[in-house]
Amino acid sequence: MIQRRITFYCCSKGLPSYQLHQLKRLADYFRSSVTLLNLRQLRKADIRQPLRMLSLASKPGELCQLVIQGNDAELAHMVLTEFIAEFAKPVIQRRMKSASSSGLLANIQSPLPFDFSFSVQSISTVDAATPKPKVIASLVDRLNQQKVSTGTKKQLVECFMAREKVSATVMGQQIALPHIMHESITLPGMAVLSSNAGIEWGSNRGPVTQMIAMVLPKPPQRPVVMAFAHFSQCLLNDDFCEALTTAKTPAVIHAIILNALSSVESLS
């Protein structure tokens, strides 16, 4: 079955009931099912449930997705994208590159109460035939480009591999979360690599298609620990993981991860 997703931020008034009614009327022209997923609340509702839809799309700045599934999902995606572009703020702007659209939406994303390095440019792809040590080395290259550490590439790779020897960092849903806490880390940071096919990660949970590297200073500040712990908890949610692993562009992956990090109440 074909699936397409539209990722967007709610505007200052959210999506009021009359706009949700218009959205439902548009969706009724297609045979595909349409679900609204609020990625901040990690709750979802069928488009035919107006009261539940209203509760999920009423708050400004919240990151949501329309999940469209069915044989005519491609056409429905085109039509509903035009609607969302008019009444909300899609992560992928029409006629604009993903990195540029991410910059335009920066003021919508809830700010983190600590310095943090995670750029759209640190998100890329890797060939499925790449062995795990080389994937780790590539993630470290992207972290070093963000100047998050005073350590050498060799030191950081060794730290990651030592952590992996303790236990493979597979979270389920084909996502690996290699992470370290080290004295050489000067700034919390992240980098992401995705693959179209599974990469063997040495876990009985099977291969992974998305590798998210995290580095934390030692010792970390309390808000940093809270934000990254909450992100780890999000990776236990099937809807969140599916949104992350099916994301096709760096801008959408970036938005989903930043949204999760900033979703903890009272971080500071």
TrEMBL record:
By its UniProt entry, which Gene3D superfamilies does this protein fall under?
HPr-like (3.30.1340.10), Mannitol-specific EII, Chain A (3.40.930.10)
**UniProt domain HPr: residue ranges:** 1-90
Q: Which UniProt keywords apply?
A: Phosphoprotein, Sugar transport, Transport
- Kindly give the InterPro entries that the UniProt entry links to this protein: HPr-like, HPr-like_sf, PTrfase/Anion_transptr, PTS_EIIA_type-2_dom, PTS_SugarTrans_NitroReg, UCP029195_PTS_EIIA2
The chain's coiled-coil residues are: none
Limits of the PTS EIIA type-2 domain: 116-260
The protein depicted here goes by the name Uncharacterized protein
| Species of origin | Photobacterium profundum (strain SS9)
- List the lineage, top down: Bacteria, Pseudomonadati, Pseudomonadota, Gammaproteobacteria, Vibrionales
